[in-house]
């Protein structure tokens, strides 16, 4: 299994989550985070904002669903056709084991 | 070295903290998160109303099209390979109610660990 960590714009996270739900991936964990990317934040005049609010989505999927989920997130999290700096990043980490607490079973 | 990500009920935090500390795993990081699973909890609520058609219709109006996000705690802890099973078992035991919504545990490989305080690295920095 793979852990997908997607950092998206806060206003885009409901869209991403709805599209994932409709595609059959209801399970997701969301948290608000602050971060900056390689543009070093946002510069407005003399002021630099380098702690921009984002939403971090945690999704664990099977290997075979990885491409599809990543494409779904990219398609729904992009602003406009071509996308913009600040749309976010997706990181993928292998998950060695998964347990469901209610059943105590390993999946 | 393994990184354990456990998403649990808020109400189970103190029990989990105590259970982990009793097993010699006192250190972890917790953060408030929102999350949803397969949404079986909402289905269970509808099933509880089964038997009366009128009530069922009423109940259905309360079930959102997309499952709601529920407040959860995400606890992350890094343990040595030999303590991985102990940590998972302890978290499962402290959090299991048998109902959906108890949470999930994910185990990820951790490549390194450093203590900011002493500058030490490796398994010595863990519990």
Write a short abstract of this structure.
The complex is a heterodimer of chains A (107) and B (127). By secondary structure, chain A is α+β, with helices and mostly antiparallel strands.
Describe what you observe in this structure.
The complex is a heterodimer of chains A (107) and B (127). With 107 residues, chain A is of the alpha+beta class. Chain A has a single domain (2-106), classed as Alpha-Beta Plaits (2-Layer Sandwich). Helices cover 21% and strands 43% of the residues of chain A. Chain A is built from two helices and seven strands, in the order βαββββαββ. Chain A has helices at residues 13-22, 66-77, and strands spanning 2-8, 28-35, 42-44, 47-49, 52-61, 88-100, 105-106. In chain A, strand 6 (88-100) and strand 7 (105-106) form a beta hairpin. In chain A, helix 1 (13-22) packs antiparallel against helix 2 (66-77). Chain A is elongated, with a radius of gyration of 16 Å. Chain B is of the alpha+beta class. Chain B has one domain (2-37, 69-125): Alpha-Beta Plaits (2-Layer Sandwich). Helices cover 32% and strands 24% of the residues of chain B. Chain B contains four helices and four strands, in the order E-H-E-H-H-E-H-E. Chains A and B meet through helix 1, strand 2 and strand 6 of A and strand 1, strand 2, helix 4 and strand 4 of B.
**What is the helix tally of chain A?**
2
Spatial separation of the terminal alpha carbons of chain A: 10 Å
Q: Report the CATH C-level class of chain A.
A: Alpha Beta
Strand order, sheet with most strands of chain A: 2-5-1-6-7
Q: List unreliable stretches of 5+ residues of chain B.
A: none
């Amino acid at each position: 299994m793979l852990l997908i960590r997607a950092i998206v714009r806060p206003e885009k996270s409901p869209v991403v989550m709805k599209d994932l739900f409709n595609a059959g991936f209801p399970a997701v964990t969301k948290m608000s985070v602050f971060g900056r990317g390689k543009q070093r934040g946002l510069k407005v005049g003399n002021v630099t904002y380098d702690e921009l609010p984002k939403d971090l989505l945690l999704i664990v999927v099977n290997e075979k669903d990885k491409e599809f989920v990543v494409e779904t997130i990219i398609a729904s999290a992009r602003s406009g056709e071509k996308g913009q700096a600040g749309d976010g990043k997706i990181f993928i980490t292998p998950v060695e084991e998964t347990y469901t607490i209610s059943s105590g079973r390993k999946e | 070295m393994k990184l354990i990500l456990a998403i649990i009920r808020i109400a189970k935090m103190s029990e989990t903290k105590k259970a982990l500390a009793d097993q010699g795993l006192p250190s972890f990081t917790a953060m408030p998160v929102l999350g949803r699973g397969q949404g079986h909890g909402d289905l269970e609520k509808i099933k509880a109303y089964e038997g009366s058609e009128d009530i069922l219709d009423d109940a259905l109006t309360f079930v959102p099209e997309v499952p709601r996000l529920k407040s959860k705690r995400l606890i992350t802890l890094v343990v040595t390979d030999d303590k991985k099973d102990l940590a998972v078992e302890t978290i499962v035991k402290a959090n299991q109610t048998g109902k959906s919504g108890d949470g999930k545990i994910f185990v990820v490989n951790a490549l390194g660990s450093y203590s900011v305080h002493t500058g030490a690295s490796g398994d010595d920095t863990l519990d």
